[in-house]
Amino acid sequence: MTDWINYDHPWRLAWRRYRQSPFAWIALIVCSIIIFAALFAPWLAPQNPYDLNVIDFFDAKLPPGSPSQSGFVYWLGTDGQGRDMLSAMLYGLRISLFVGVLSGLVAILIGMTLGMIAAYFGGWIDALIMRIVDFMLGFPTILVALMLLAILGQGVDKVIFALILVQWAYFARAVRSTALVEREKEYVEAAQSLGLSPQRIMFIHIMPNCLAPVIVLGTMQVASAISTEATLSFLGLGLPITEPSLGLLISNGYSNMLSGRYWISLYPGLLLLLTVFSINVVGDRLRDVLNPRLSR
Amino acid sequence: MNKPVLEIQNLTTRFESEQGIANAMDGVSLQIDEGEVVGLVGESGSGKSMTGYSIMGLVEHPGSIVNGSILYRGRNLCSLSPEELRKLRGDRIAMIFQDPMMSLNPVLRIDTQLSETLKAHRSIQKYDANRRALEILHAMGIPSPEIRLRQYPHELSGGMRQRIAIAIALLLEPDLIIADEPTTALDVTIQAQIIHEFQTLIEVRGTSVLWITHDLAVASTLADRLAIMYSGQIMEQGPAVEILSKPAHPYTQGLLRSIPSHNERGKPLAQIRGSAPALTQLPPGCPFSPRCEQAKSLCSSPVPTNQIGISRSTRCHYPTVQTL
Amino acid sequence: MNRFILEAHKISRSFSPHEDLLGKVVRSILIQPNPPSVKALTDVTITLKTGEVLGVVGESGCGKSTLGRILAGILEPSGGQLMFRGKNLSDMDPHARAETLLKIQMIFQDPLSSLNPRKRVLDLIGEAPVVHGLIKAHERDSFVSEALTRVGLDKDVKSRFPHQFSGGQRQRINIARALAVNPEILICDESVAALDVSIQAQILNVFMKLKAEGSLSFIFISHDLGVIEHLCDRVAILYLGRIVEIGPVDQIFRDAKHPYTQALLQEIPRIGVGKRRFNPIRGEIPSPLSPPSGCQFHPRCPHAKIECSSRMPGLQQVSHEHHAACHLLYGNSTHLTTELSK
C-alpha cells in the first residue's frame, strides 16, 4: 500500500515510545544512577568498609553528619563497627546488584533454552519440561531458597545458585508461550523449507521474536532477586558477614532501632526500596511499550 | 427518473496522526438512486471502506468528517444528533461487513439476534418477531431455517453466517444497504450462491445497494453504476457497462488491462508500475500521477471532477475514452 | 533424462487432533474410541513435467495447501510416495533427501508473516545460501544485490526490515529468498491472493519472467481461475482432498468434464458479461470430518445418479492427458458432453 514506510529499527521505535512517560524516564535515570554508583563504589565511597585499618572502632554508632577523625564527614552516620554507612551501603548495593543480575541472567539463559525446546519440539519433551516448570512454580520462592541454603550452607555462590533455581521456571514458561505462537508463523515454515537446522531456527530465528516478555520479566525478576537475597540475608541465611549486602546491613542495624540509632537500618532499607521500586517501574513501562498489540 | 436515496456531496474524512494528515476521503461525491446498485471499487488504501463508515457515522477518533455532506432523502446525516442517527442506522440504512462476526454476537442465538434487531426499531410482539425472522431466512434460501434459528453463530459455516448477517440487514426493509466486501472471504461457489440470493431479494424489495469491493468482476455482475476509487478520490464513475467497455481514466484503464483474462494467455500482463502512495505522503495534484503513463505537468495541480457524458464523470485532466 | 521432475503417487494425509498424555490416559480409562481424524488428502497422484506450470485449484477444505506443503517437504504424507527425477524420497539417505528438498522451494500466501520481522533483507535472502555452502560469507553482499535485481527490487534495500516494505515488495523478497538456494521447483501457495489487483499483475509477471528463463518448474496453487488460465499449462482440480479433474488448461477451460469444474468455471464473476444472474450449484462444501459416501460431490451435483452415492468414481481418461473422476463419463462421451454442458 505504501512505497516506503520510514520507521527504523524495531528497538528504536520501542525506545521512542518508552520516552513518552516522564515517570518511566525518571525511574530509568534513578536506575542508571544506582547502577553507576554500584559499579564505581570503590571510587565513590569515602572509605573502604572492609579494610580494618581504616575503620575506627571508636567512631561507632555516630549519627549522620558527624565528622570523622581522618577529615571526611560520615554523611549517613556509622554502624556498630564504626563503618561509614554511605560506604557500606555502596558496597552492599554492589553485592546486591551483582547477585540479583547474575542470577537473573543465568536463569534467563536456562529458562529461555528450555522453554524454546519445549515449544519447538512439542510432544513428550514439552510435557516433561512443563511438568518440571509447574513443579518448580508450585513452591514459594523463599521456602525453596531457605531449604537450599540450609543444605548448602552460606556463601555468595550458593545464594546465586539458589536464586537461579527458583527463577528459571518463570522464563521457561514466558518464552514457551511466545515461541508457540511464533512457531506457527510462515517464516518458520520458510526457514524449514530452506533446510535450516532446528537449532538455527530456534535460536536465531524464533528467539529474537520472543525477547519482549523476557525483557519485561527479566527486569521484574532482577528486582525480585535483589529483595529475595535481602530477605535471606536478613534472616541470616544469605551472604556471609564478610560480604555484607543491603539485607545484611539492615539486619545488623535492626537491634539498634529501639535505641534510636535509626540510621543504621533505615538508610540501607531506603536504598533497597528505591532500587527495587525503580527497576519495577522500568519493567512496567517496558511491558506497555513492548506489547505487540500497541505497536505498529 | 428515480429519486436519489443517498447523495454524498464533496465529503472529506480526515485522520490525524503523528505521521501526518491523511484524507481517507477527499472531496468524494456520489449518488445512489432508488433501486440502484452502485459498485464502489478500489484497492487497499483507496478509502472505499471509509465511505461506508462515514455514511453510517462510524468514523471514530482520530478520524472525523471535516467537510461536505451526506444527504439521506434530503436529510444531512452529518448534522444529525447521535440519537437520530441511531434510529436511522439498521432501520433505513443497514451495513454488512466482510467478517460476518462483526454483525453477529457470538453468545446469542440467531433468533435472539434477529428479534432484537426488530424490537429495537419497531414495536412488535415476540410472536410476530419470530415469524418475521423465519420468513426472512426462507427468503434467503437458507435450508431448515427453524433449526438455524436456534443455533449459535459458531455452529454455522462462514457462508451461512454471512447469510444471517444479510438477513439481519434486510429484516427491517431498509432503503439502502452498504455491503463492505461481503463475499471476499468466501469460496467461489458460496460467493455465487450469496450473490444470487442477494440479487433476488433486492430486486423484489427495490432496495438500493452500495457494494464495496476490490474485485471489479464481482462489481460488474451486480452493479448498475460503478465508482472507481483511488487514494481517497473517486477517479471515475458512471454506468457500469460504459466504464468497463470504454474506461476514461488511466487508472481504470490500467486496472482493466492488468486483469489476466484481458490479456493474451501466456504473455506478460500489462501492469501499472509502482504502488499506491501513503495517504500522508500524497503527491500534489492527482494522486495517480506518479504511476500514470500519460501524466503531464498539469497533473501536479488539483484535479476537479469533470462531466464527460450523461451521468458519467471523471477526475482527470486528460481523460481519454479507450475501448477495451 | 526423466521427463517428470516431480511425481506424487497416491499421496494421502490425515490429521488427528492433538492430544497430550493426560488426555490419552483419561480416554483409555473411559474406554472411548479414538478421536476422529480428518482426511485432508486421499490418493492424490500428480506429476510435474520439467519446465511446466501446473495449477492446483480448489476451495476451502480441498487440501491444496496441505498438498503444497507435502510436495515442498515441509509436511510428511500419511501415505504414498514422492519422487524427484525418478528417485523416491523415502529411499534416500538423510543428506541426499535434505539436498533434494532444497531444490523444491515454497512461496507462501501472506507476504508479511513469511518474513522474520527481526531480520534485515540481507539476512533473509543471504542466510540459507551461506549456511548450505552455496556462496562464501564474503560474497553475500553482492549475491543478495543480484538476487534483488532479479526480482525487480532496488539493491539498496538490503538493510531494511520487512515492515518497511509494501505487500508486493515483500512478496518479491520472498521470491528472491526462495531463488537464492537455486531451486528447480517453485511451489506458489496462493502467492498473489493477498495482493491488490495492480500489484498481482506485477508479481505474476515476475513468475512469468522466471518461467521464460527456463530453469524452473512451477506448481501454482490458487482459487483464482483467471490467474490459473493465464499462467498455467496444466491444471488439477481438487475437491475434499481428491483430484476430480486434471488436464491441459485450454482443454479444461474450453470443455470441462466434471460437474464441479463446470460449476466453478460458470460461477467465476467475469467482466464484460455485464450484470447477470448466477445459477449457482446448491449446498455447502461438506465438512472433511464427514465426507459424503460414493462420489463426494454427489449431494450438490445437478446430474447425480443412484450409483453416484454408492460408488467412488476413479479418474477416467477423457482424452490424452485429460482425466476426470465422474460416473457419467462411462459410456458414450459425445452424448455426455451435451448433457453435462446444459
What is the 3D form of chain B? globular
Proportion of residues in extended strands of chain B: 25-35%
Total of helices of chain C: 11
N/C terminus separation of chain C: 44 Å
Q: Give the spatial strand order of the biggest sheet of chain B.
A: 6-7-8-3-9-10-12-11
Counting H and I runs of at least 4 residues, what is the number of helices of chain B?
Answer: 10
What is the CATH topology descriptor of the domain at 4-35 and 43-92 and 218-314 in chain B? Rossmann fold
The most extensive interface, with participating residues per chain, is: B-C, 49 and 44 residues
State the CATH superfamily name of the domain at 4-35 and 43-92 and 218-314 in chain B: P-loop containing nucleotide triphosphate hydrolases
Distance between the termini of chain B: 30 Å
Order of secondary-structure elements of chain C:
EHEEHEEHEHHHEHEHEEHHEEH
CATH architecture of the domain at 4-35 and 43-92 and 218-314 in chain B: 3-Layer(aba) Sandwich
Poorly predicted parts of chain B = none
Strand runs of chain B, count: 12
Structural class of chain B: alpha/beta
**What about the largest sheet of chain B?**
8 strands, mixed
Topology:
The complex is a heterotrimer of chains A (296), B (324) and C (342).
Chain A: H1 10-18, H2 22-39, H3 41-44, E1 66-67, E2 73-74, H4 85-121, H5 123-138, H6 141-152, H7 156-183, H8 186-193, H9 198-206, H10 211-234, H11 246-254, H12 263-289
Antiparallel strand pairs in A: 1-2
Helix pairs in contact in A: 1-12, 2-4, 2-12, 4-5, 4-7, 4-10, 4-11, 4-12, 5-7, 6-7, 7-10, 10-11, 10-12, 11-12
Chain B: E1 4-17, E2 20-33, E3 37-42, H1 48-56, E4 63-72, E5 75-76, H2 82-88, E6 93-96, H3 110-121, H4 126-139, H5 145-149, H6 158-171, E7 176-180, H7 188-205, E8 208-213, H8 216-222, E9 225-230, E10 233-239, H9 240-245, H10 250-258, E11 306-309, E12 312-314
Parallel strand pairs in B: 3-8, 3-9, 6-7, 7-8
Antiparallel strand pairs in B: 1-2, 1-4, 4-5, 9-10, 10-12, 11-12
Helix pairs in contact in B: 3-4, 3-6, 4-6, 6-7
Chain C: E1 4-15, H1 21-29, E2 38-49, E3 53-57, H2 64-72, E4 79-84, E5 87-88, H3 94-102, E6 104-107, H4 121-131, H5 140-150, H6 167-179, E7 185-189, H7 197-213, E8 217-222, H8 225-231, E9 234-239, E10 242-248, H9 249-254, H10 259-267, E11 316-319, E12 322-324, H11 333-340
Parallel strand pairs in C: 3-8, 3-9, 6-7, 7-8
Antiparallel strand pairs in C: 1-2, 1-4, 4-5, 9-10, 10-12, 11-12
